Fold Deferrochelatase.
Amino acid sequence: MAADPEQTNPSGGLNRRRVLSGIGVGLGVGAAAAAGSVLTHDHDTGGRATATGGTAPAADGGSQIVAFRGPHQGGIATPAQDRLCFAAFDVTTTDRGQLQQMLTSWALAAEAMTKGLTVPGDAGDLESPPIDTGEAEGLKPGNLTITIGYGASLFDSRFGLAGRRPSQLKALPQLPKEDLDPGSSDGDICVQACADDPQVAFHAIRNLRRLGTGVVAPRWMELGFGRTSSTSPAQATPRNLMGFKDGTRNIDAGDAAVMGDHVWIGAEEPQHWVRGGSYLVSRKIRMLLEQWDRDNLNDQQNVFGRAKASGAPLTGKKEFDTPDFSAKDASGDYAIPMDAHVRLAAPENNRGLRILRRGYSFTDGIDPVTGQLVGGLLFLAYMKNPDQFVTLQRILGAHDALNEYIKHLSGGLFVTPPGLAPGADWGAQLFG
Ligand code: HEM
C-alpha cells in the first residue's frame, strides 16, 4: 500500500515529499514495483506532482482537491465540475485475485490523481514505460473526482460475487419506445471522472485503463464537454445543447436530508456494503439538433414548459419561480402543456419522486451518412433505487413532447459503493 501522501504543513500547503510504493498490476508491473520513488508538486505552476521536484498546488488560491475518502464517493454530491470522461469496462480475466488486486491499485491511483499527484510507482526507469502517462503533469488537480460503479453482470458466477449483489442491481425493464444498443450499454465496471479540466479527466480514465491491462477491457467511453446540471445553488444553471437552462429544479446535493431521502442507499438495502452509495443510471441521448433548430421558439418553450431565455416556468417570470401546473392561459389550455417535459418529470406530479441529475453534453462529430451533427446529453443520474428512473422514464418515454427531438441510444445501470475509509480500498470493499 502506498503511504498516504496527504500531509498538510503548518502553512496549509501540501507537503511536497512523498514516498510511494508500486501499485501496478498488468502492464507496467515491473516499473510499478519500484517502491520508494519520491513524488513532488510543481509549486510554480500550481500543477501536479512530478518525479523531479516542485512544491504546492494551486498557489493562486483554492486547492482544487476534492477529498477522495469519506462516507460517500466524490463525484456525486460534489458540485458538478465542468468536464467528464466516463468509461465502462468488461472484466476479461477469470482470476478473482487479479480483479481484486486491480481494484486496490485503482483506488490508490485514483486517490493520488485526485490530489494532483501522478500515478504512484514511477522510478524513472529508462528501460520501462512510465507508470503515469504524463499528460496531466503541470496541470492543477482541477477538482478531479473518480467515482467507481459496478454493473449487475459483475455479480454473475465468475468471481463468486453473487452473494454480494445489491438487491436493486438488475436489468432495467424495457421502457417505452426504446431500442438501446447493447454493445455500447452496461458493463461490469464503470468509472466516472469529473474535473474542471478535460485533460485531467481523460488522464484519469486513461491511467486506470492502463493499470487494468490484462484484467479489464474498455467497453464504451464518452467525453462530456459541458455540465448540463447544477447540483448546488452556488452554481449558475448551465444550458444544454437545446439552449435551455438545465438543472434549475435539480436536487441541491448539499442538502443532506434530501440526499438521504432520494439519493443515498440506506438501511432498506440488505447488502450493508453499499449503504451510503447510490445507484447510477446512464443514458446516452442523442438530440436531433437540426430538427430542433428548425422548430419555432414558442414550440421549443412548450416542449419544456419553460422560457428559453430566462429559464422561468411558463407560469412565472423568474428562473426559480415555482411552476403552477394548474394555471391556464387565455384560451383555457394549461399554460404548461400536458406533455411538457417539466410537467411530466416534476415531483408534484410523481408523488414527490426526485433524482440527482449530473449529466454532460457530448458530441461524436458528424454522422458520415447524413452529415448531421451527432450530439446530445450523456444523462447521468444518482438515486436510492433505480425504480425512481424507471417510473419517470415510463412516463417520459410514452408522453414527453421532447421525444420528437431526442433518441435514447444506449444506457447503463451501476451501483456506486460508499466512500472509502482511511486504509480501505475498492478491492477489499467489493470482495468483503
Ligand atoms: C435529452 C434529454 C433531456 C433534456 C434535454 C432534458 C432537459 C431538461 C430541462 C431543460 C429541464 C428543466 C430545468 C430543470 O429543472 O432542470 C429538465 C427537468 C427535469 N428533467 Fe430532464 N431532460 C432530458 C431527459 C430527462 C430524463 C431521461 C429524465 C429522467 C428519466 C429527466 C428528468 C428530469 C427531471 C426530474 C426534471 C425536473 C423537473 C422539475 O422538478 O420541474 N430528464 N430536463
User: Anything to note?
Assistant: DSSP finds nine helices and 13 strands in the chain. The radius of gyration is 22 Å. Confidence is low (pLDDT under 50) at residues 1-22, 24-46, 49-61. The longest strand covers residues 373-383.
